[in-house]
Amino acid sequence: MTHRYPTILAIVLMALGLLVPVGETGWIGSGSALACGLLSCAAVAFCLLPGLRGREHVVSGAALLLGAAAPLLLLRGAGPFGVEAPGLWLFVAGLMLFLWQRLEVLARLPGRGIAALIAPGLFGVAVLYLWQIMVVGFAVPQVLLPSPAQVGHVLATRMDILWPDFRQTFLKAVVAGFATGSSLGFVVALAADRVPFLKRGVLPLCDLMSAVPIVGIAPIMVMWFGFDWHSKAAVVAVVTFFPMLVNTLAGLSSTDAMQRVRNGWH
Hints:
The chain is an all-alpha fold and 266 residues long.
């Protein structure tokens, strides 16, 4: 099978990663990380055996879990390692190659509902995992890019600060502005579709406003509505109004006469 070659390459990369030095202590200094890495390599190699059928997914899942745990356990030690840990990045590269091969297999499986979400879900988890490994492994400052673990910790412990900001920014400004802009754009599009001269006057205005950047609209809205959430909602309404207007007009223009008669628009 064609998927055997990526799996073999993944085993080679992971095995080399366990042999190449990592920092000062390496894999030997973290016995749990070394054990997870060895078990992961063994599980990946076991996936090459013929006749596994349904057990192949169970074994590959165990290989991915053990392989993902090995770098996390290693980075709890004397890290961060950065470029001084080529073995760590070789192991992660092999693990990601094996994950890529498994995602291709899962994507070809027939299924609906939850089964169809397994491959996209694993891809999302892999992105978060690489984010965590790269940030911790290269000691990226928290100010520049916090790790997913730090983001989750803040979300869990600082809701007393985040909830008022979320309510002020999203529930008031974004939701109100989006509803206002979409509603007005839809109503004006209906009117412009029925009145030809209004349509000829509205479309050039849409082209003009689409060329104006948000940084040019925001100061005007602040002068009109103040610094509270009303000015933010006005900016969202203006940004939403014209796309809704143009797309609604395009949809109404693409309908034929029979559809208009059937829906009572003729």
